[in-house]
Each structure stands twice: as structure tokens, then as C-alpha cells.
Amino acid sequence: MKIDVISIFPAYLDALKLSLVGKAQESGLLDVNVRDLRDWTTDRHRTVDDTPTGGGAGMVMKPDVWGNALDDVLQRESTLVIPTPSGEVFTQALAARLAQRPHLVFACGRYEGIDARVAQHYRAAGIATVEASIGDYVLNGGEVAALVMIEAVARLIPGMVGNPESLVEESHGEAGLLEYPVYTKPVSWRGIEIPAPLLSGHHANIARWRRDRALEKTAAIRPDMLAALRDRGGLSQTDEAVVRAADEVLRAGGVPATEGEGGADFS
Ligand code: JB8
Predict the structure, then answer these.
(1) Atom number in ligand 1 closest to CA 140
(2) Which residues are noted in the entry as S-adenosyl-L-methionine-binding (predicted)?
(3) Residue 36 sits in the same domain as residue 142
(4) b/e map of 83-115 (b: 16 or more CB within 10 Å)?
(5) Number of independent structural domains in the chain
(6) Spatial separation of the C-alpha atoms in residues 235 and 226, rounded to whole Å
(7) 145 lines ligand 1 (CB under 6 A)
(8) Residues 6+ apart with CB under 8 A from 200
(9) Taking the model in full, what pTM does it have?
């Protein structure tokens, strides 16, 4: 896969040289290029923004500069990704779809964003165009959102992760539940023991214990995920009993046993 990122702050994307995304590049599975939007300006001051037509706060990125850049970088098979807080939510499912594409181009805006005609034009020209938000909060520009999306996509490129099982088993994968708690040695740490079933070597009991903890955690903080899984027929009678018991404890003001008692909570 090829990825181009266009930004007025290309140094923001230096983190892509590290870790997993860097390894993907070394292995040849991924080729990331970061480019400076100002290279496509034509005036002496290398202007990329102008005042919002109709009035309002801040500045808007000029469509002509973005047009110059994108005409150069986009190819027939490219997908244009525009990070914006007003886009569709970037999910694991969207990451998986983007991971199938041969070329991604991230257009990172700043200020109040990019003139709306840019997305409109490339969509009308037949370029697959995705305006995407990484969550309901506001950043100062698209660079950090692009980093998040690129990391989520890069680890899904076939042949990327050392252990492919770690991809299918994790949160927001097939199971539709939050991940169960994980532990490593020592068995006792600061007076807290690893739960006994995990030390038993009884694989069916371990699987059941992990599913129960995942169900409890999901019921407590992501009832939306639990409802979606139920609608897909993904909850057994045993699962439903565990969820009912967890809901009972939560309504009584309790916390799941693995979260411990008497601690300080943010909320
Ligand atoms: C200007 O919050 B965000 C985000 C914020 C932005 C731009 C892009 C994305 C461009 N502000 O994800």
C-alpha cells in the first residue's frame, strides 16, 4: 500500500518512522510519503488560507492550493481521506476497508478546515473520498487524526502483525466485546492475585472466565456494543445470564470483582 499525507506541518508525521508503521515501511508492505502543502502555493507568501466567506471566526484553507496538490498526488485508484470533526466516525470497520485500498491520500487541514468544494469536486470526479472523524472532540488540525488512522490501517495490512491471532481476538474485532483483563507474572503483585481460573490450566474454564469478564466490562461501559452483539444473535443463554447478573451488581452501585473495591474513580 502507498500512503501520501499532505500537511502544512509535515514534521507532525515524523512519528510514522517509528515502531510498527516504520517496520511496515522497512518490509516494503507500506510506503508513506509526507508532503508540504506550501509546495503547491504560487504566491510569494506561500498563502494557504483566507477568510471565511459569509463571515465567522478563523480562517479557511484555500481550494486552489489543495486542488494543485491533490491533482498532482491523486491517481485513478486513490482514496482521499480528509480528517474532520464533521466526518463519519473512524471505526475498526472503516480501518479494515481502507486497508484493502492500494493508495490512500490524507489531506490534513488546519484552521477552520478545508473549503468544502474540495471534497465535493474530487467525489464528483470519481475519486473515493472519505471525510472521517476519530471521535467527538476537536483537535487543532488533521495531522494527529491522520496518524491515528494510518496506525490503525497499517497494522491490518496482510502480513503486518507477527501473530495474526492477536488481530482477530482483540477489542472491536469479531467478538463485538471489550477485551477481557490480561495478566503476566508475578502471580501476586502488591497484594493483588491473578484470578485463580487463569492459573488452573483448564482451557474451557479460562475461556468462560475471559468471556464473563468481557461481558461484564462491556455491560458496564459499552451497553451500545452489547445491544449490537445481541441483535446479531451473538449472546448465548449463558452470556445473557452473566449480563443480567452484572447489570444487577451495577444497579446496586457495585463494581465487577476484577476492578477491586474502594478505589478512587474519575467520575
Ligand atoms: C482543522 O478534531 B479533528 C480535526 C480538527 C481540525 C481539522 C481536522 C480534524 C482541521 N481542525 O479530528
Answers:
(1) 11
(2) 109, 134-139
(3) yes
(4) bbbebeebeeebbeebbebebbbbbbbbbebbb
(5) 2
(6) 9
(7) yes
(8) 206
(9) 0.94
